[in-house]
Amino acid sequence: MYNTLATQGRERVHTGLAGIDSSKLKKLRNTQLKECFSLIDEMRHKLEFVARIKGISFVDDAASRSTMSTWYALETMEGDVIWIANATANSSNSVAAYRRLRSLVENKVKMIVTLGDDTLYKTVFGDIVPRIESASSIGDAVHKAFYSNIENVKILFSPSSENGVSYEEQGDVFKHEVNDL
Question: What's the topology of domain 48-179?
């Protein structure tokens, strides 16, 4: 049971615990607890493991549509990360929001691939991330990240902003592109 919970990530476990009434939790047996947490696997597009290809893990976090959600995703990732994100307008509000991610990005992110214009990311992270590139599509982003020649990384798709496309659609496209590699 504990191995299953551990592979789901802290956010999923926290979400599951938050949804359990403490009085009911006291009455649960381990098998009931395991069944309860097995439902967490059904949460799509939130720190969802997609595949491991040639030693690279792909994680779908398409439901993260704010910098705070992406902060949490980056915080939970172990090791180095290539971050695929939505393009965002380069406004003073956006710059301020993304600056909150700087310490995590500096310590974990080796490359950023943006879906569209990468100006904001270069403005905020250009001095701490060695590679920031734009991509024309999710498929292009997956290929750029996978073939980046950066070893021992996880590729995280965490958009961090809205772009007019539903997170379900973006997450499904991401998973399709990964599985086509």
Answer: Protein-Tyrosine Phosphatase; Chain A (3.90.190)
